[in-house]
Amino acid sequence: MNENELTFEQALARLAEIVRGLESGSLELDKSIELFEEGTSLVKYCTEKLDSAEQRVKILTETATGVKEEDFNDK
Fold this sequence. Notes:
With about 80 residues, the chain is of the alpha+beta class. It has helices at about 10-25, 30-55, and strands at about 60-65, 65-70.
């Protein structure tokens, strides 16, 4: 399954698995490098997902005339 088929949560869970595997120190060098490459790809994917979500987030503030939407980055 490639990262485009993963949800953010699935990608994050896979990343946690990779970290545990790398931290175990029991993997062969080639497998460690392979997992490291997969992990860096997943980090990029998760970062892009978070950036995209942040752009869509709106903060609703109450004004005298109703509700006003502001971009998340404006706060």
